[in-house]
Every structure is written in C-alpha cells, then in structure tokens.
Amino acid sequence: MERNFRTRRGEIDLVMRDGETLVFVEVKFRRGAGYGDPLEAVTPRKRAKIRTLALEYLSERRTGCDSLRFDVVGILADSGGYSVEHIEDAF
Q1: Do 86 and 77 meet the contact criterion of CB atoms below 8 Å apart?
Q2: Of the candidates 16, 11, 2, 5, the residue with the CA atom closest to the CA atom of residue 70
Q3: Is the entire prediction scored with pTM above 0.85?
Q4: With contact defined as beta carbons under 8 Å apart, do 24 and 69 qualify?
Q5: Burial of 72 (0-12, 13-18, 19+ CB in 10 A)
Q6: Distance of alpha carbon 51 from alpha carbon 7, whole angstroms
Q7: Bridge partner residues of 13 (DSSP)
Q8: How many CB atoms lie within 10 A of CB 25?
C-alpha cells in the first residue's frame, strides 16, 4: 500500500495489507554480522515508536482493515549473498 510513510516523528518502512489486516513492517539491513543480527536492532524503544507512527497513519488514512499487525524483516548481507528473515506479528 505504501512505502516510507514519514512524519516529523519518524518513518514506517512499509505499510501493507494482508487480507483484512493492515501490516506495518520494519525492515533492518546489515552488511555483515559485525553490528549484530539486524533483528536485534528493533528494540523496545523502536517498537514503541513504530506503534506511535502507526496511530498517526491510522488517523490520517482510511484503511478499511479489521485488524493490525507489526512485522519485522531482517536482511543480512555477507560474502555468500543475502539471508532474509521475516517475523510475522513480531510485537
């Protein structure tokens, strides 16, 4: 539905629809594991911020969706290519 929804408070990477569910997706990318797993970067503080941004999104747009979900996608690039991990309903 939307990519990079921005407000003065921050950004939601992806807003998608899965049937009647509105899905807010946080995407984290890392080149190598030197800074840890990309999924570890979605801290409790980051989750709270995403929830706040989702409320802003809902106040600005009519979605017609019955429920909400928050997903996280971690992408790790290394010499062997990319590994992608998708956690549905992460928080």
Answers
A1: no
A2: 16
A3: yes
A4: yes
A5: buried
A6: 13
A7: none
A8: 19
Token pair in block for residue 19: 């049937």
Contacts of range 31-36, beta carbons closer than 8 Å, 24 or more positions apart: 31/77, 31/78, 32/76, 32/77, 32/78, 33/76, 33/78
Q: Tell me: the pLDDT tens digits for 21-63?
A: 999 999 999 998 777 899 999 999 999 999 999 999 999 998 9
Q: Do the Cβ atoms of 28 and 74 come closer than 8 Å?
A: yes
* Token pair 């106040």: residue: 59
Query: Phi and psi of 47, rounded to 5°?
Result: -60, -45
What token pair was written down for 14?
């992806």
